[in-house]
Amino acid sequence: MELLSSHFTFSTEDRKFLVNAESEEDQIVPDGAAAIVNSEKIHKSALGEFFKCFSLQKTWAALLNTATKEGQILCMNGIRVMSINWVVLGHVYYIGLSAADHTDYRSMWRRLTMAIIYNALPAVDTFLFLSGFLVSLLLSKDLVRRGKFNAVGYYLHRYLRLTIPFLVVTLGQGFLAHIYIRGPFEDIIANGHKACEKWWWTNILYINNLVPWNKVQLCIGQSWYLSNDFQFFIVAPLFIWLLYKNGRIGVVVTLVTIACSCIAAGVITFYKDLVPPLFLILTLPLWKISG
Fold first, then answer.
1. Which residues contact 286 (CB under 8 A, 6 or more apart)?
2. Strand, helix or coil for residue 219
3. Is residue 212 within 8 Å of 199, Cβ to Cβ?
4. 255 CB burial (10 A radius; 0-12, 13-18, 19+)
5. Distances in Å between the alpha carbon of 273 and those of 160, 175, 268, 281, 283?
6. CA-CA distance, 5 to 3, in Å (whole number)?
7. What Å distances lie between residue 207 and 49, 60, 152, CA to CA?
8. Contact present, 232 and 175 (Cβ < 8 Å)
9. Largest CA distance in the chain
10. Are 8 and 32 in contact (CB under 8 A)?
């Protein structure tokens, strides 16, 4: 009441109600004071909590919190840190190759130390490993505990969790960015916009890494990984269920699938005459010219 009294003038009757109120809900305050009370309620509402997510004061402590919860696999955090730094490092050079004269990079690729750059693709594989490991772990625990898993909840939760922010990015990068982006990456954004006008629906179905077939027309360039990961997520329960029901059959099916995947990658690389590192594909003419 002292706080309200410093900002508003109360009558004797107003003060009587404020002093004698037994709870916050029973308080009767004048219009000016009610505005403050209502603002506090809004602050605690769902909308208020949403806007508080953007508060540095609220999130800073959580961002710097190094405390771990029971059952966490701590090495996963180290893998994430090393992998994301490797991905960023590789993309710095990849984007440089996409927007600059490749000639500037010709001498650099012959350095042994550059092998970590143009072989940065395995860094993405570590994220696929993390996804597969966590899905296998959680589904295995669910099967052991209940003998089954909720397929509808499994797929629906993942789809909604990914699709909503994915559509926001598609709108921003695929349909709006070409309006205001200017500079060396203007053509990349413009090409993405043209692809989005025709193939945006493939993002919703998570088939944009497959459609259109035999032609690279990604609406959002980096979204190939999201679709790839979601496709693995769809088939993962099959292998985990087999391992749960019959360990030997599950192991055999898993190993055969891995072997077929490796063979398919080798056959495609040979048939298409591809260079394993992506960066060398971009600079291949220079390598041939320089011998």
1. 102, 103, 106
2. coil
3. yes
4. exposed
5. 39, 35, 8, 10, 14
6. 5
7. 35, 37, 20
8. no
9. 96
10. yes
Read off the amino acid at residue 22.
E
8 Å CB contact between 203 and 166: yes
Determine contact, residues 138/146, Cβ cutoff 8 Å: no
The DSSP secondary structure of 39-88, one letter per residue, reads: HHHHHTSHHHHHHHTT-HHHHHHHHT-----TT--THHHHHHHHHHHHHH
CA–CA distances in Å: residue 9 to residues 27, 145, 266? 16, 63, 82
* Angstrom distance (rounded) from CA 287 to CA 170: 36
Kindly report the number of other CB atoms within 10 A of residue 248's CB atom: 9
* 3-class DSSP assignment, residue 185: coil
Strand extents, DSSP E, 91-193: none
The answer, yes or no, to whether the previous bond of 212 is cis (omega within 30 of 0) is: yes
What is the torsional sign of CA 165, 167, 173, 178? negative
Q: Block means of pLDDT (10 residues each) for the chain, length 291 residues?
A: 44 47 45 50 69 82 81 85 88 72 64 78 86 92 88 92 93 90 82 89 92 78 90 94 92 96 90 70 46 40
What's the distance, CA 57 to chain centroid? 24
Per the CB < 8 A criterion, the answer to whether 116 and 123 are in contact is no
- Closest of 115, 120, 98, 108 to residue 290, by C-alpha: 108
For residues 71 and 79, the answer to whether their CB atoms sit within 8 Å is: no
Report d(CA 33, CA 3) in Å as an integer. 10
The Cα 217–Cα 195 span in angstroms is 6
Nearest Cα neighbor of 166 from 211, 217, 220 is 220
| φ/ψ (deg, to 5) at 275 | -95, 125
